[in-house]
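Priority: low. Protein: Pentatricopeptide repeat-containing protein. Input follows.
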Amino acid sequence: MGERKLVNDKTFRIGVKYLAEARELKKCVEIFHLMNAYGFVYELERLNKVIETLCGEKLVFEAKYIVMKMKEFVQLNGVTYKLLIVGFCEVGDMIEASKFWNLMVDEGFELEVEAMMDTFFKNNRVEAF
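Result:
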């Protein structure tokens, strides 16, 4: 399928999502490398779409694993961190969200307080803020 270019971003996200649901996290990362071998270069936008899909399905810890493994191949940006922060807030893990918040600050990205506040209010976790 890769040689014939039958794979696009949507099929890529679907494949990674189902592997993440099955907790096949090494295979999720291997798919990125396999796609790179077939001419789909490592792209931040593709990684962010995968992270957005996983966080939307409440697979935030799986998304974190993929981000940490792909960090050396793709330069992360504030959007990647924001997706993870919001994802962790939505599943109720404020400690992990704050760890990524601090990591985002350490790497010099602009903070998005609105996203975190919005997520706290949606999840009735105002005391965490």
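Residues 9-21 form the longest helix (13 residues). Helices lie at 9-21, 25-37, 44-56, 60-70, 78-90, 94-106, 113-122.
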